Amino acid sequence: MIIHTLKLLIFFAVSYSQMIIGSEVPAVSAGTLVTHQQFQSTHVIARDIYVWLPEGYTENSLYDVLYMHDGQALFDAKKTWNGQEWGVDETASKLISNGKVRPFIVVAITNTERRHSEYFPEEPWLSLSPAQRYDLLSRHRYGGNRIFEADIQSDAYLRFLVDELKPFIDQTYSVDSSREHTFIMGSSMGGLISIYAVSEYPEIFAGAACLSTHWAGIFDMQNNPIPAALNDYLQARLPTPGRHKIYFDHGTKGLDALYPPLQVEVDKIMIAKGYSDQDWSTIIQAGANHSENAWRDRLDLPLLFLLGK
User: Fold this and answer.
1) Which residues are CB-contacts of 56 (< 8 A; sequence separation ≥ 6)?
2) Which of 21, 150, 254, 300 could form a Cys-Cys staple with 117, CB 3.0–4.6 A?
């Protein structure tokens, strides 16, 4: 019974981002949200992009930019399947108005039905043997659907961000386009693609915040080669410390209960690479689960770490 209950919890926790009501535009209670519907790409399928602008946004100032994944879940609980949201507009507005962080805009990239395949780091995937990849592609969620909706597409997803979306944002909005003022953030699989982005494009992103990072890659640790492949990749490709900031965290309940031992191994790599408290943070939120409400409760921590004055 306990195992069955855990499986149900994991199924609902990891399915949330694909059950957002995508046809409705979110509303915000602070700042302004600009919608770019069905943003076209030559690399990945089209999706909506939401750009959040803080109160008092002006063309006379240059703003930092925070790219965030799972954009449907960031602003409006009335538009999500479970009535939860990150509360990005409220938390960001409070931190900016209190002078605790540099003024910034948020580029919210909505996910698609290919979310798992777009967010899974491709280089670690290719390091697996053909037999391992075949096995992983054949695995299913506890609800019956395949875990990977398509072949791995994260390199294409990052090319979309770097070669198509970022130039559009830089040209359309009053932002500082330099590396020092460009950041990326996500949770769960969004955490994986965020650490992958800063490792693949260290000249583009100055930092990444990875909340409840899904180091397991799938939802079963038995015969699972993914954590070792991710660790090998990080050992080889993490950007040089001192020029980038990296934030990790996790809770201890629900799906997050899988992460403590996996995060410990990643932390060992961070230490071996020479990261210090100035450019790396790992936070454990005891009792927190795998949900938008949990990420909302601690959203100020990664924002302060990446953008704090």
Assistant:
1) none
2) 150
DSSP state, residue 15 = H
Q: pTM for the full model?
A: 0.92
Backbone angles phi, psi at 117, to 5 degrees: -75, -30
List of residues 6+ apart from 145 with CB closer than 8 A: none
The stretches of the chain forming alpha helices (DSSP H) are 2-15, 88-97, 115-119, 122-127, 130-137, 154-159, 166-172, 189-200, 226-237, 259-273, 292-297, 300-307
Residues paired with 207 in a beta bridge: 183, 245
Strand partners, 146: 140
Regions of the chain where pLDDT drops below 50: 1-23
pLDDT the model gives residue 261 = 98
Neighbours of 123 (CB within 10 A): 18
Which residue range forms the structural domain that includes residue 244? 2-307
Q: What is the DSSP string of 56-108?
A: T--TTS-BEEEEESSGGGSS-GGGSTTS----HHHHHHHHHHTTSB--EEEEE
CATH number at residue 192: 3.40.50.1820
> What 3-state class would DSSP assign to 128?
coil
